[in-house]
Design brief:
The protein is of the alpha/beta class. It is 39% helix and 19% strand. The protein has 2 domains: 220 residues, Rossmann fold, CATH 3.40.50.2300; 129 residues, Response regulator (Rossmann fold, 3-Layer(aba) Sandwich), CATH 3.40.50.2300. A hairpin with a 5-residue loop joins strand 12 and strand 13. The N terminus is likely disordered. The structure holds (3S)-3-methyl-2-oxopentanoic acid (1QQ).
Length: 374
């Protein structure tokens, strides 16, 4: 696609024709191919999220290729869970005529890379960034992922009621934008529910040995551990907590929404409570079709990150068709108009802050799977 911008049109011109079409919605026909690029963490610490996202995107791209009128070219690149690599990819997408960028996987990376797109007027749809402030980076930055602030309060409230929480210990990594943002919401929600925080314990995203921190936590005899961590820390933290005889419930943020937790922590993951943006038990037609198609294509079940990725590309298609254009400004405008779209995440809208709006769900790990906490 290099050279698409040679006409001086910063929106790219499409590989084989113009990106301004005719018609609207289902009748929209665009001659050119709309180039969509994703920067995902396919290697490095966040790879288990990114691999799942890639599957969700590729399934959606396959389904979109069967629709009439608009063709997409999806390119998926690896940011290596490294903000500098993501910046390089975003710079490449700005200059190669990409119409819209999806990603990156981590909020921590997004804060550094997304401004590159914002400055160039290249729209971005984040599909897993949940930290506060992501879409405040500019009017070209959107997300289809619910924020920690949209999910954690109801998770803490439900857990407080069901588990009769009075006193907890909070643990979080204090060197990652998402885990810090999640911590802020957890602390506020615990206060709002009248739960005492007996101790707040911090660690690094790179830590994997939590035994001494957990021993300190155990001395508080907490009713629960409330944890904001990415999956590479969550797995050993949960495993070691159980090994040390901490039987109290563990409540996690979005980083825990990863089946790798159950695969690697096994029995120790049972009873973990986590708020989610996707209800795997939803029997809506969109979710049923998504889950069946995913299982068929990959011979495995999707997770929340796959569902958000799949939904993301469908949302992009909706935005493109709204103005029947694959040009950057037009897609940006189209994204602002996404309202009450039926998706696997539920009835989906983008609000005036360019954030996602739809129902969340509180889940508990049971028999190695996420189940709705009733
Ligand atoms: C963020 C997250 C991560 C858990 C995404 C994989 O929510 O970085 O915002």
């Amino acid at each position: 696609l290099a050279g698409c911008s040679s006409t001086g049109d910063d929106s790219g011109s499409g590989a084989d024709g113009g990106l301004k079409g005719s018609g609207s919605g289902d009748t929209c026909t665009i001659e050119g191919t709309v180039p969509v690029a994703a920067a995902l963490s396919l290697t490095g610490a966040a790879a288990s999220y990114g691999e799942s996202q890639q599957k969700g995107l590729e399934l959606a791209a396959e389904e979109l290729s069967e629709q009439d009128g608009v063709k997409y070219e999806l390119t998926v690149e690896d940011d290596g869970t490294d903000p500098r690599q993501a910046i390089g990819l975003f710079e490449q997408f700005v200059s190669d005529g990409t119409s819209l960028v999806i990603g990156p996987t981590l909020s921590n990376t997004a804060f550094q890379a997304q401004p590159v797109a914002q400055d160039a007027g290249l729209p971005v749809l984040a599909i897993s960034n949940t930290a506060a402030g992501i879409t405040e980076q500019g009017d070209f930055i959107f997300r289809d992922s619910l924020t920690e602030a949209q999910v954690i309060p109801q998770t803490i409230k439900a857990a407080t009621e069901k588990q009769d929480l009075k006193k907890v210990v909070v643990m979080y990594s204090n060197d990652d934008a998402f885990t810090e943002s999640g911590y802020d919401v957890m602390a506020q929600s615990l206060e709002d529910n009248g739960v005492e925080i007996a101790d707040t314990i911090t660690f690094s995203v790179k830590d994997t040995d939590f035994r001494s921190l957990l021993t300190a936590a155990k001395q508080q005899n907490p009713d629960a551990l409330v944890v904001s961590a990415l999956i590479e820390a969550a797995i050993p933290l949960v495993t070691q907590a159980r090994e040390l005889g901490i039987d109290a419930p563990i409540i996690g943020g979005n980083g825990f929404n990863n089946p790798q937790l159950m695969a690697d922590a096994g029995e120790a993951a049972e009873g973990v409570i986590v708020g989610a943006a996707w209800n795997s038990a939803s029997e809506s037609p969109e979710n049923t079709a998504f889950m069946e198609a995913f299982q068929e294509k990959y011979d495995s079940a999707p997770d929340q990150f796959a569902a958000q990725a799949y939904t993301g590309l469908k949302v992009v298609d909706h935005a493109v068709r709204a103005n029947c254009s694959g040009e950057r400004d037009d897609i940006r405008d189209g994204l602002t108009k996404v309202k009450d779209l039926p998706t696997p995440l539920g009835s989906f809208s983008i609000n005036e802050n360019r954030d996602a709006e739809h129902d969340a769900v509180v889940q508990i790990v049971q028999d190695g799977k996420f189940a709705v906490l009733n």
